[in-house]
Amino acid sequence: MVEMEQAFWSHPSRYQVKYRAVSDGGDIGPLCTLVLENCPTYVTQDLSILARFDGEVLSFEVTPLVPVRLEAFEVQVEHEFDRMERVLLNGYQSWSTTEWLSAFAGMRGIDHVPQQVKDRYFIGQLGDYQFTDYGGGRSRQHGYSYAVLRRQDVYRLVGSLNERTGFTRLRSDAQAGMVTLQRECPNRVLQPGETLRLLQVALLAGTEDAVYDRWFELAGIAARPVRPLVGYSSWYRHYGDIDHAKLESDLEGAQTAFSGVDTEGATRLFQIDDGFSKVGDWLDVDRVKFPEGLASLAGRIREAGFLPGLWLAPFVCEKESRLAAEHPDWLLRDAAGEAVRAGFHWSGSYALDTLNPEVRAYVRDVLHTVVREWGFGLLKLDFLYAACLEPHGGLNRGELMADGMQLLREAAGEDCLLDGCGVPLGSAFGAVDYCRIGCDVGLDWDDKPHMRLLHRERISTKNSMGNTISRAPLDGRAFGNDPDVFFLRDDVQLTVKQRRTLLENDARYGSMLLTSDDMGAWGAAERDLFATAIRTLLARRG
After folding, report:
1. Choosing a second label site near 370 at 20 to 30 A (CA), which of 45, 161, 237, 470?
2. Contact assessment for residue 159 and residue 429, using Cβ atoms and an 8 Å cutoff
3. How far is CA 80 from CA 85, 278, 385, in A?
4. Helix, strand, coil shares of the chain as percentages rounded to 5?
5. What pLDDT, on the 0 to 100 scale, is given for residue 7?
6. How far apart are CA 362 and CA 133, in angstroms?
7. CA-to-CA distance for 57 and 215, rounded, in angstroms?
8. Is the CA virtual torsion 406, 408, 411, 416 positive or negative?
9. The predicted structure's pLDDT at residue 13
10. How far apart, in whole angstroms, are the C-alpha atoms of residue 250 and residue 84?
11. Sheet arrangement for strand 341-343
């Protein structure tokens, strides 16, 4: 291990706990706030707090002395920001913009978006907007699970060591000279004598590789051993308009493009994306589009020398699905009893209650059928954030997401490759084989001007490429990075330079190199560019 620099924080400068004591009758008392300065232990009539810092790991243990419901927990650490300092705060989920910024830059939420737009498209559901304050103006930013501060060649990393029991939000305030660590609290009453390690984070300084290596070592997280994937995805070529004949033609084109290309050390993938059924009705394959179903097509893909992949969104259903009509009790409900929307996609998108035993049985049945009976070897699992839109069942968001990820792995089996997408990233560490680390690319560079004013999870080739670079250190440490697809075809609104840069960055920083082109239409120049990118990818991963 590369020798670490001396930790840049010796101890927390301030921390506070907000809680409510619960009486024997179950009544919740008034909100109590403890604000503690440089104090390793503290005991009240309601709870005791123990803070530890060993030079690398800062942790806090809370032990209630009476029944207590924690409302909030945060730690403030002083840090004198330099005007040249850059900060990277990891966005909430796969699609959330994550980029190196000046420490004195600001961050915009969706308060500026007209309410009618938010109500119609449910864009607040795509990120953390429903439960995170974006206010504060310039010099204030936030992220989740980890943050990195860079001053010249020294990287200072703050990384959560456990997101399974709750998400960790990290805030920087350059003008105030403060970094704040906010921990998601349990969604239940804590009982007397129940010791809870509420916050555990690594505080590290050194080279970029050193801090990331040490963080994952301390967290006990290792990426699942996988080979790079190279190949084709149907989405940006056909979107939802797919059928058996089109995919057969695309498969023949992929075979042609791979002819003579050395892919030893990688796995060739042919992935079928959305469009084979209504979202939620996964086993009701459209027999007009696919008269033979999907099992025969998966077999044909394997015969052609490719691993068959299939897209699913297991924790959502669309409004017009049979599932929504026949099982309204499977939908996640908010405190008012209303079905929780997961976004604006398809005919309307609803979240499923992943704690409902019937939903869990259905998810298991779907994944078992797709993998064991239909023969798909990779599942791209999308819109996973839907599992944790509403804390419920005594679980907070982090616990719900961890539970959902475990359900998917158990249902798919250890031998099936999983590509997570639309997932809070910390929940995916070590849980999936590959993971999308950026938003969807587009058929142009940065979408229309009015679309740029919306949310941090919007479609943008520019933003996707930025995430590919900023989240590159996760590749091979947390999972294999999925940077989305590249294009070499000339019917997209990207310049030749933009198309080549997209391809080169995918090869340099990711573990998946997929296109949505008609690969059979490529000429010699496109095939040479693809072969060169594969060599770059394999050399880096080798």
Report:
1. 237
2. no
3. 10, 53, 35
4. 30, 25, 45
5. 47
6. 36
7. 10
8. negative
9. 63
10. 49
11. 316-318, 349-351, 341-343
Residue type, 327: H
Q: Specify the pLDDT at position 23.
A: 64
Could you tell me which residues are beta bridge partners of residue 86? Answer: 102, 150
The secondary structure of residue 444, as a DSSP letter, is: B
Local structure of 395: helix, strand or coil: strand
Helix, strand or coil, per DSSP, at residue 324: helix
Residues paired with residue 307 on neighbouring β-strands, in sequence order: 269
Please list, in sequence order, all residues whose beta carbon lies within 8 angstroms of the beta carbon of residue 196, skipping any fewer than 6 positions away.
61, 62, 63, 186, 190
Which H helix or E strand runs over 524?
A: helix 524-541
CA 255, CA 125: separation in Å to the nearest integer?
A: 40
Return d(Cα 176, Cα 299) in angstroms, integer: 60
- For 398, phi then psi, to 5°, come to -60, -40
Decide: helix, strand or coil at residue 403.
Answer: helix
What tokens does 58 get? 């800062």
Q: Is 121 helix (H, G, I), strand (E, B) or coil?
A: helix
For residue 201, what are the β-bridge partners? 58, 160
Per DSSP, 174 falls in state T
From the CB of residue 2, how many other CB atoms can be counted at a distance below 10 Å? Answer: 12
Q: Taking Cα atoms as reference points, which of 234, 215, 232 lies closest to residue 268? A: 232
CB 60, CB 51: distance < 8 Å: yes
**Rounded distance, CA 210 to CA 531, Å?**
32
Q: Which two tokens stand for residue 530?
A: 């693809």
Q: Are 405 and 428 in contact (CB under 8 A)?
A: yes
Q: What pLDDT score was predicted for residue 12?
A: 60
Q: How many helices (H) and strands (E) does the chain have?
A: 12, 25
How confident is the model at residue 2, as a pLDDT?
Answer: 37
Strands of 406-498, DSSP E: 417-420, 434-436, 480-482
| Per-residue confidence (pLDDT) for residue 460, from 0 to 100 | 97
CB atoms under 10 Å from CB of 289, counted, come to 16
What pLDDT, on a 0 to 100 scale, did the predictor assign at position 51? 85
- In 10 A of CB 276, how many CB atoms? 24
Q: Which of 61, 71, 4, 60 is nearest to 33 (CA)?
A: 71
Token pair listed for 217: 């070592």
Token digits of residue 482: 């999925």
Beta bridge partners of 232: 270, 515
First to last CA, the chain: 20
Question: What is the SS3 assignment for 534?
Answer: helix
DSSP 283-304: TS--TTT-TTTTHHHHHHHHHT
- The C-alpha R_g of the chain, in whole angstroms, comes to 24
Query: Which pTM was predicted?
Result: 0.96
Which run of H or E residues covers position 169? strand 168-173
Give the mean pLDDT per block of 10 residues along the chain (542 residues). 45 73 76 76 85 88 90 86 95 98 93 91 94 86 97 94 97 92 93 93 95 98 96 98 98 96 96 98 98 98 98 98 98 96 94 98 98 98 98 98 98 98 98 98 93 92 98 98 97 97 98 98 96 96 72
